[in-house]
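FAQ: What does the model actually see?

It sees only this:
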Amino acid sequence: MTNQHVRALNYSAHALEDLRTMRDSMDARFPVSAQVLDNVIALLDQSVKFILPNCCSVIEPDQLTQNHVDMARLPFPCVAFETPWMTGEFVEHSVGGSPQKEVTKRIALCWVLGQVPEPKKGLNQWAKYYPQGGVFVYPIYW
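And it is asked to produce this:
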């Protein structure tokens, strides 16, 4: 693969714009939600960004082994994986009478349990249940 096949997605930049707009329009009656959103915005802004292939197709599902899972570690304490999600299938359905579309832009904001400031107070308390460590994954899509 040559560098001409890799193109910047800038999903995180666009997501940050949308999240900041959402935050600016939040009602003052929801201070906890506003603080959580502020923290998610900060994490996404500071995260190291990676572009993944369409639908995160890195390893063929039938080739995935426990060794892959055991070796899986984040390369940095906080990362954002950006991926297009185009299956080529159009799924038409509605929820509550509103038509739904396939979500084609996805971000997985991931951080190592206990190594990054928690976006919501109390999340890092989960570390006591997982002494071997863990990763939080926060999906962002549109």
